[in-house]
Every structure is written in structure tokens, then in C-alpha cells.
């Protein structure tokens, strides 16, 4: 609908409303897409489910690209792999599609403005789509407390969009309406969302999210391509130029570029700019500027100076004086906090569905002239949806937090808010859910200020002329991500270039520190989906004995966090969480011995939903290069002789110098690599094929020290699959009813890997014949020393040996010391030299992931 609805049919939306909020008969609308002249090629890449493996999606995308050669892809799907790298299959396809000349528009996700844009919108080659607001739809349906307002505001950032920074340090490219609008639908019962506010089948739906924004921008891209062809003798613009034209002409909404990117799509401006020829500008094309880059992503050591150059071209027939400067949110103007309780005695109102949710009204006053109003709410539940609507002093419906599930946190902002008394309606979004308890709120106003410098600050550009501006940035002293906006303005034309700044953790010989805030999430997709992702980069020098990263936090009861330590090869080396025996602690620690020199990454993921008793909670991170406190007694060396068949005891004493409770265990390995067939965690033989919806795919626990992973599948029908840790995500090579794939690296991510078998040969015009499928995964890893046993057992040995000893790790809280025992019982010929490595590891059963703390070589001669 957003792309190509024709607008030829009239819909009476009075028939859509709940009787509690009637509209007069004949309240007619038409639904028309951005590019109704475009040819639309619809691919149902998820099959008959609401989710799919990447290998299923790729068959549809590949068919479209190779058979129909579309100019534009609109993709409204994705995920949150950690790490998020170019090994993601959809990112690989999209990059190749762009290289083949297709524009790819990808929704950023709907996990809230504190969450990172999802993959594959994190790919620098695609157009990442965020969401802005259009509240007329809420007015028509009396939605989310609109009866307390008189009018509405539009063109703010929707609280639904996944904004912030990707793990690679990028932000969304631009935004388009995503909250909310009318979309065409079907009365077919299979389309479960297609009911009106009275619960009846309907041919319309009130639709929103970045899944609305992405096709809006895809339609805009189609218009740009058509306009360019019309004035450039049929030649097509490159995908990079299409994005450049869209972002150069976007409307600045007055929000930070970490939320709005280059601003809101302006299709008229983009088309006018596309029709302009830099060598022969036309007066009909407006006073547009073409900016040479869509965003600047800068990564450097905290406090260092960095210079970037940006080219600007004058597309108009008039000489323009072009000004350039950098801005960022620098000043807090006002701040108010408080709380309400949505108990059973709370007032109620009638919502758009006829329900009567509990609610409370809060009034607050803000000063005139502020650039931005930022509002938060949080609650203690994790089992409720709480909504917050803001109404300005003029009675305009200005913002709504739009919770996406049972979460704990809402955040929304309003640009250029009117000064005076505002009203916040805080309400229980779904009346059947449990009491959220106390709801905390915060209303803050902020101002932009000038930052850094741009040289020159202004230049005169003749028609068709290109000149460069130089942005001089001093990297923030605090490690992590921040943003500023490079604002370029001419005679009636202006543009915003997002500037994303990632300051590396500042290090000394011992390590370094960083800090941040735990916020929360909007409940999108439930547990183990991100409410918030923060990324920190660490340039590790050569020769360090170890690296460990600890994260500690207070005043955040119920918050669940995990941290992933990612090596220079893009693989997770180790990870940890703050949950132990179902109890949330206030810290976590990830380790890696003898780290390879290069850029390491630590990703903080706030699990969604999380406990929300506070609006935010600060955390502190510490990077240490000190060797962990591990001592051994009785571990044999090259001068040691151990009699065959006689047990020898080794004591391993560990002090937990980290900030989180950890489960330590011993993992003795040989020097020889062996290909093991991994034992599956979920069924992997004679499964129904295709896998029924909700069925877990074959899953395997990958041991540490693995440098090659092989996966195979055999089915009764043609089969393919993708497999991996989430990212890497590897595509198999299919050959009839079997398929196989291989992944090689210096060390693969330890943790739960999957195989996602799916029918090959799609797309299909009819249901795929039912069959059976079996799968297997093989790890090439260091052998396990079977002449040893330990007091802890070895979780990695359990991945290959069904008779391995029980896993009974040593649990140590921060500061605690404990001892583990290794028993060596040599076997073999007298005089044989045995060499191995005793790894001391940690493991999180909740995550199904762990890592190595220290590696200690041992050697002995059999006597």
C-alpha cells in the first residue's frame, strides 16, 4: 500500500471504528501509494510463517533479483545478531544487489529509540529507514487517549523506531511516516490482523512501524529513479546516488541525527534534485544542494582530533551562499521527575477498542524556546504494557510511547515544543495485563549548541559548482557512541549530514574504563530481544597476557544484561550475563587469554523486557590486561614423569577478581585437532520437513578452540539451509536432497549454533510436499584429554561425548577464591611424551555461551 496503492477505491472509515467512538457515515478516504505508477513485485519470503531462516528469505530475494531485475528492494525484516557483521547472509545479499545496481531500503526495526537499528539495515550500502509520526490516524480512531486532545502534531520521531547506533557505529539514513496510517488489507481469515476496532473483518488496517517507513522510502526511491531517467537520456542513477539525492533533500525535523538521520524524506525535493543536471541546472528544480556523503562515521581514540571533508554541489540556477556548521544537544534546560501508581482505584477512559484501561494524568510545565522535549517512563513490572501520551498546551496530541510488548520502558521526544503547561496521560495499555505497580516519569527539555568547527563556515557556489567543507572534530573524552549534526544551508535549501562518533576506550598499560546508562526497552519480541545495545571498541596492543572486560551497575533491580567480547576476526570470544541461579546480580565479566592485537569490541545488550524500577541506571566498565588470578599445584611440566595408570592430582586455585558471579571449570585439551560430530541440543533426525512453525531448529553447543565448522542436511525433498551462531550466518550449497556448508576461522564463536533446513528451489506456487529431514554439525577442535577427570566436569566435552562427566562448575562471587581438582591418570607406552593445555573456562547456562579465562600448558613423560 505504501508503495503502489492506486487510490481508486473509497473506504468509509466510520465502518472501522468501535461504537464507543463513532464517526459519521461517509467519512471517506482513499489509500494511495508514494509511487502508484511503479510495477510492484511481491515476494512472500517468509512462507507460511511469521518468521523464517535467512536461506528461505534469500531464495525469494535472489529470484527477484535474477528473474525480474527490480530497481528497488523494500525489506521489512531483520534481527539483532551479536556480533553484527558482514557475515550476516541478508547483508551479503543486499551488498551484492546494490553492486548489481538495485537500491535496497531496509527497515531499522521497531524495538525503540534506545535500541540499535537491526541487521540488515546496519549495512552501509543500504538505505536504513527510521520512522516519523503522522497522528491523523490516531485522531480518526480516537486512539491512545486522543479524546483528551483537540488536534495533533506530525513530523516528530516515532518512539517505535530502532534508533541509536549500530554495532558498526552507524545511524539510520532518513525517516518517513511510520506512526501511523491506513493500509489495504484482506477479509480472508488467514490475515489475522485485518480486523477493525470493533473486532470485525475489514479490508483496511491501521498500520505503522518502520515496516511502513521502508516502503515509503522505497517508493520515493522509485520516483527519484524515474525522474533521473527522464532528464538523463534514460540512464539510471546508481544506488549510491539515489540515496544521496534522498538524504540531501530530506527535511530536518530538529531532532538529533542519531534518531532522524538526514531528516524526513521530501519526495518533491528529491525528484527535483534528480531532474537537475549539474552542468545545466533548471529553474524548475529548486534551490537544492547535493551533499557528497550521506553520513560520516568516525572512529578514533578519545580526545583525538579528526578531520573529514564533505563536498557540496549547487543544483540550482542561482548562485548560493552556502553556510555550514556542526550542532549537538549540549544543554539541559529543565528536568522534572515523579511517579504515579496505576492501581485498581485509578480513573479509566474508553480506548479505541472499547476497553477501559486504568490511567493517571500528570501535568508539567516547560519553558518556551527549548529545542527538544524528551520524555521517559518506566515501571516495575516487565509483565505489562504502559502507554504515555503527551498533549501540548494548545491541546495537540504530540507524542505517544507505543509499547511493543510486555516491557518496562518508554521514550519519546518532541522537537520545538510549545512552552507552557503540558499533560501526560499514563495508562495501562492492555486492561487484561497485571498491575505494573509504580510508573516513574521524567520530562526533560534540551537545547542544541554549536560544536567543533567547520571550515570555511560559508562559501559561494555558482550554479553547478562543487566545493568542499572541512569538519574538524575532537573525539569525545568518554568512550562509546555519540552524534552531532553537520548542517549545510543555502538559499532556501538545507541538509543534515549525520556525524556518528565512536571514541575508543582510552587505554594505559593496565587497561582502561568506560561508562554508560542502562535504560530498557519497549518489549518488542519479548525475552532475549534487545531493549538497548551499547558498543565499545578497544584497540588491544600486541603482547598482552590477557584481556577481560567487566561491567558493574547498581540501582537496577531486575535488569538482565549480557556482554559479548568480540575479537578482531569478528567472532565472539566469550560472553557473560548477570543472572546466576535465576538471581540477577550487579555485574558480569568476559575474558580472553593471550589476545590477538587489533580492534576488539565489547557489546552490552540490555535484555528485553527488563526490570524497570528506575528510569535509568549508570554502569561502569573496566578493561584489564592483567593475567587472571589462577594458580596451580601439581601441574606437570616437561621434566615431570608420571607413572602409567597411577592417578596424579592437580589443584587449581582461582580468585574471581571480576565484578560478576561466574561458573568456573577445567577444560584439559590435547595439542591434536579432531573432527567431532556434535551432540544436538534439540532433535536433529527425521524431523518434519518443512519444519512446522514454532519448532526449534537443530541446535548444537560449539566448543572453544574450534577453527572449522561443517554442517550437513539430508531430506526427502530438495533442501538447503543456513547455519551459524546468529552471525556468522552461513549459506549451504544445495545438491538435490542434500546440502552442506563450511565455515573456517582462527576460532569460531563458542555457544549455541543452529542449522535451519528449508526447502530448496523456491519460490513455490503451491505448498511444499511434506517430508523428513536430518541434520548434523561437525567441529574441528582440539581433542579432549581423556586421561584426565576433574571436579567440575567439562561442558565442552559434553558437546561430543554422551558419557562425559556431569558438569558441576565452581561458582565464585566477586572476590571469592576456590579450588578445582584435576586428576591425571596416564595411559600409553612408557617414554611417551604427553603435551596438552589446561584451560580454565567460564560458562553461562542461561546464554549457552562461555569462554576461556586462562590457558596453561602442561607436559609429562609416561613412566
Structure described in brief:
The chain is mainly β and 863 residues long. It has 7 helices and 54 strands.
Rg (CA only): 29 Å
* Termini gap: 79 Å
Content-based structural category: mainly beta
* Bulk shape: globular
Average pLDDT reading: 92
SS summary, helix count:
7
Largest β-sheet summary: 10 strands, mixed
Kindly state the percentage of residues in helix. Answer: under 10%
Unreliable stretches covering 5 or more consecutive residues: none
- The proportion of strand residues reads 35-45%
Strand element count: 54
Write the layout of secondary structure elements.
Blueprint: E1 6-12, E2 28-32, H1 54-68, E3 72-75, H2 89-99, E4 103-107, E5 127-134, H3 136-141, E6 151-152, E7 154-157, E8 174-179, E9 181-184, E10 204-207, H4 210-231, H5 239-248, H6 257-260, H7 267-275, E11 289-291, E12 296-301, E13 305-314, E14 320-341, E15 359-366, E16 372-379, E17 386-391, E18 396-400, E19 409-415, E20 420-428, E21 438-450, E22 453-455, E23 458-461, E24 466-474, E25 480-489, E26 494-504, E27 511-518, E28 529-540, E29 546-553, E30 561-566, E31 572-577, E32 579-580, E33 583-584, E34 587-593, E35 598-608, E36 617-624, E37 630-633, E38 641-642, E39 648-655, E40 662-677, E41 687-689, E42 699-702, E43 706-715, E44 719-724, E45 729-731, E46 733-735, E47 738-744, E48 751-759, E49 771-784, E50 788-790, E51 810-812, E52 817-824, E53 833-844, E54 849-862
Parallel strand pairs: 3-4, 4-5, 5-8, 6-18, 12-26, 38-54
Antiparallel strand pairs: 1-2, 5-7, 9-10, 11-13, 13-24, 14-21, 14-23, 14-25, 15-20, 16-19, 16-21, 17-18, 17-20, 22-24, 25-26, 27-36, 28-35, 29-34, 29-36, 30-31, 30-35, 32-33, 37-39, 39-52, 40-49, 40-51, 40-53, 41-49, 42-48, 43-47, 43-49, 44-45, 44-48, 46-47, 50-52, 53-54
Helix pairs in contact: 1-2, 4-5, 4-7, 5-7
